[in-house]
Design a protein that fits this description.
The complex is a heterodimer.
Chain A: H1 9-17, H2 27-36, E1 46-48, H3 54-57, H4 60-81, H5 89-98, H6 103-130, H7 139-161, H8 166-179, H9 186-194, H10 201-232, E2 252-254, H11 255-280, H12 305-313, H13 316-333, H14 351-378, H15 380-387, H16 390-417, H17 421-446
Antiparallel strand pairs in A: 1-2
Chain B: H1 17-21, H2 26-55, H3 64-67, E1 68-73, E2 81-85, E3 90-94, E4 100-104, E5 116-117, E6 122-124, E7 131-132, E8 138-140, E9 149-150, E10 152-155, E11 158-162
Antiparallel strand pairs in B: 1-11, 2-3, 3-4, 4-9, 5-6, 6-7, 7-8, 10-11
Classes of the chains: A mainly alpha, B alpha+beta.
Chain lengths: ~450, ~180
């Protein structure tokens, strides 16, 4: 207080808002600045030097946060332009594109960020999985992460309907159509989602409210919890080779600037890339929704097309209920299974784990396209469904075939690698995820009119 | 074989009278804990009930005049013809033998709208390639069941369709057909 008052008013105001320099000169002050600054306060004053390795986390969690901030900002702008009723929705999107200054740019940023968020969140999940970062104190954070991924998918899906064009109308029709096949609760679930027998004003209102209020609130609750858990677990897992002992205590560096500068760089590069992409590529908009005419082919949003591909081969009860729910349950339980070792931070558990990962991915890469082609060329699932009750011919028989193939895979992995429990989980997760990715790719790229297999372009 | 019931041992039953009466006994604590749990579950169920009732779509109540579509006189529809009624989201099919069926235009697989293919004489779904014949029977999966029906009534040679409710069915059978006399 005894300091002489600084002469310049602007400088005095700046000082009152930011008491410390942007990057203070000495280490002690830098650590203090992290604790004293609201935004930086989510970080500890120092972090282990190893945790900063870019090829360990790839900055994926941070990218997710940046995308969510962009989505919130552009989303609020779009809300000002959009009118959520079947009569006006499409026209308001057209007006946004044709008449509003930077309308297409804001819409594109919103749409591409939303799609990219799913990719980034999925890659983040893979990074966490492959570095065994779901073990120990991080068990429950894996579950929160899955909830966040679910929220991201729900946000994408509810936003997809809003333009009320042919793409969105029919994509949402067939995905809500899938709900009807959930045993017992199906028709009830479907009517709740659609707000009636078919998509109309009630559905649009429901989707709009979910998209602009309920899901954002869920994000606001879950994200801080996710970050808090990361802090409480002592930050991210520290990367190391399987035969390498981590130094105890690990070498630490200052959060400011070492971590903050890296985060800042990732955020800026991401935003710049998105802005360029949004300028060059427009988010698609079909014709106005026409409930009387389904376009051919009608496809679900790309992140649900794996299920749509399953539907071509399996009875709907299996394709939209048994297989997805059992895989989901498996994923939630991944951190709670019994394991033989704690390889937190070791990529792919061990060198053997890396080989198993390659083997499992390669198996899926061969088996999934082969099975799809076999079914397409022989018409096996259609024929079985024709002369047996559909639930058996189209459900039980392919289901048991799949189980048999899984047993074969298990036998092959056992005899080749004799894996421990960690490596077993690795094998099955890689097989499942690669398989699902391939189904999605097949449906997105290789399904043409009438959903027949066709060559893209 | 006689089965003897094993004595029931629960945490509440096991401790002696004197201990379970103590203010801080494990028996009392676990009982209170369960009571709270039960109350919590009951509250969750009530909130769920309120939420579900609030969001459940109300059935559309429509006046009879709006519900019924007067399709026209029987002879307007030659046997073997399929006529769309976009207002009712349905097709009126006259079977080759003269009977009438009002078929929903929604595919039973995932709800896409079906166009009638005159050349192939079937409904072909653009979404997943399901096909249905003029009776709404599945010719090509993945559709799991025949097309939904709307009730048809024929009085004084005039065909009328009740669009108020759909009837689900597994397969076609003779009793579903409305016939003029």
């Amino acid at each position: 207080m005894s300091e002489p008052t600084e002469s310049h008013l602007a400088r005095r105001i700046w000082r009152s808002v930011f008491p410390t320099p942007l990057i203070p000169a000495d280490d002690r002050e830098r650590r203090r600045a992290v604790v004293e600054t609201l935004l930086l306060h989510i970080h500890p004053p120092t972090v282990p030097a190893r945790a900063l390795r870019f090829t360990h986390t790839w900055g994926l969690g941070g990218m997710g946060l940046v995308l969510l901030v962009l989505l919130a900002g552009t989303g609020a702008m779009l809300m000002l332009a959009y009118r959520p009723s079947p009569a006006e929705a499409y026209a308001s999107v057209q007006a946004l594109i044709r008449e509003t200054g930077f309308g297409p740019f804001i819409r594109n940023i919103h749409a591409w960020s939303a799609n990219l968020l799913l990719v980034v969140a999925f890659l983040h999940l893979l990074r966490v999985f492959f570095t065994s970062a779901f073990l120990g104190p991080r068990q429950f954070n894996w579950v929160i992460g899955l909830l966040l991924l679910f929220c991201a998918m729900a946000a994408n899906f509810t936003g997809y309907l809003l333009p009320w064009d042919q793409l969105s109308y029919w994509a949402i029709t067939i995905v809500t159509g899938m709900l009807a096949y959930v045993p017992l609760a199906g028709p009830w679930l479907q009517e709740l989602a659609r707000g009636g027998e078919e998509l109309g004003a009630a559905a649009l209102n429901n989707f709009y409210t979910l998209h602009t209020t309920i899901i954002p609130v869920l994000f606001l609750l879950l994200l801080p919890w996710h970050f808090f858990r990361v802090r409480k677990a002592g930050g991210v897992v520290l990367p190391h080779r399987h035969d390498e002992e981590l130094p105890d205590p690990p070498e630490r560096v200052n959060t400011l600037p070492d971590l903050v500068v890296r985060e800042f760089t990732v955020a800026l590069v991401l935003i710049a890339a998105l802005a360029v992409f949004a300028l060059l590529v427009d988010s698609p908009l079909g014709g106005r929704a026409n409930p009387g005419m389904s376009p051919n082919p009608t496809k679900a949003p790309w992140y649900f097309q794996g299920f749509q591909e399953l539907l071509l081969h399996f009875h709907p009860v299996f394709a939209v209920c048994v297989l997805p729910l059992s895989s989901l349950l498996f994923f939630v339980l991944v951190p709670y299974l019994r394991y033989d070792s704690d390889p937190s931070g070791v990529p792919f558990v061990s060198p053997k784990g890396l080989k198993i990962t390659r083997f499992a991915a390669l198996t899926a890469l061969v088996a999934v396209p082969a099975l799809v082609l076999f079914d397409e060329l022989s018409g096996a699932s259609a024929r079985l469904a024709a002369w047996l009750p559909p639930l058996i011919g189209n459900g039980l028989i392919p289901g048991l075939t799949l189980a048999g193939l899984l047993l074969g895979f298990r036998q092959a992995v056992r005899s080749r690698y004799a894996p421990n429990r960690n490596e077993w989980v690795l094998a099955f997760v890689v097989l499942l995820l690669t398989g699902f990715l391939l189904l999605t790719l097949i449906s997105v790229l290789f399904r043409g009119p009438g959903m027949a297999l066709s060559w893209p372009l | 074989m006689k089965r003897k019931k094993p004595p029931i041992k629960t945490p509440q039953a096991a401790p002696s009278q004197a201990r379970s009466a103590a203010p801080d006994s494990p028996g009392r604590r676990s009982f209170l804990w369960r009571l709270w749990l039960a109350l919590g579950l009951a509250t969750a169920a009530e909130l769920g009930w309120i939420g579900e009732s609030f969001f459940r779509p109300r059935p559309r109540v429509r006046a009879a005049a709006q519900r019924w579509i007067v399709a026209g006189s029987v002879d307007l529809f030659p046997p073997g013809s399929v006529t769309p009624f976009p207002r009712g989201k349905l097709y009126l099919a006259r079977l080759p033998d003269g009977g009438f069926l009002a078929l929903s235009r929604s595919c039973t697989h995932l709800g896409c709208s079906l166009p009638w293919d005159e050349k192939r004489q079937e409904f072909v779904c653009p979404c997943h390639g399901s096909a249905f014949d003029i009776r709404g029977e599945v010719r090509q999966p993945p559709a799991p069941r025949a097309l939904d029906l709307f009730p048809v009534s024929i009085e004084n040679n005039v065909v009328r369709i009740d669009t108020g409710r759909t009837q689900r069915r597994g397969t076609f059978d003779e009793s579903q057909v409305a016939r003029p006399f």
